[in-house]
Amino acid sequence: MNKREMKISTKEVEKNKRNLRSATSCKDEIDKLYFESYEDISIHEEMLTDQPRMSAYKESISRSSTEKIVIDVGAGSGVLSIFAAEAGAAHVYGIEFTKIAQNAIKSVKNRNLGS
After folding, report:
1. Does residue 46 surpass a pLDDT of 60?
2. Crossing angle between the packed helical segments 101-110 and 79-86, to the nearest 10 degrees
3. Using CA atoms, how far apart are residues 85 and 94, in angstroms rounded to an integer?
4. CA 27/CA 39 separation, integer angstroms
5. Alpha-carbon gap, residue 105 to 115, rounded angstroms
């Protein structure tokens, strides 16, 4: 490889680094928008008012959660975590990244299910 080829290669590497930083920045923005969309209570209200869905969740969780450790990843409003606790789970971990977690904490406290 001669010096000219080396310079081209170095320029290509720098160009690829810039493109990668740009793509990473774009992905970070998409992730941010995705999670922010779940901070709006209306998206949770849609699920919570869907009675067939909620009944199926509650029945399934009631049958399978007794005396077990439950991890609810993306807990949202916390309703599924609450179902598990009410069904007798040994311990429930509700994990939520967005600000809607504050609503879940209030719901859990209002039902005297923990903190």
Report:
1. yes
2. 30
3. 11
4. 19
5. 7
CATH of 41-110, one of 3.30.110.40, 3.20.20.70, 3.90.180.10, 3.40.50.150: 3.40.50.150
Q: Assign 43 a pLDDT band (cuts: 50, 70, 90).
A: confident
- Give pLDDT, residue 108: 93
Q: Residue 82: how many CB atoms within 10 A of its CB? A: 22
Say which amino acid occupies 102: Q
Residues 90-106: pLDDT tens digits? 999 999 988 899 999 99
CA angle 8, 13, 7 (to 5 degrees): 25
Alpha helices in 38-100 (DSSP H): 41-48, 51-64, 79-86
- Per domain, the residue ranges of the chain are 41-110
Long-range pairs, 43-50, Cβ under 8 A, ≥24 = 44/76, 44/77, 44/100, 44/103, 47/76, 47/77, 47/79, 48/77, 48/79
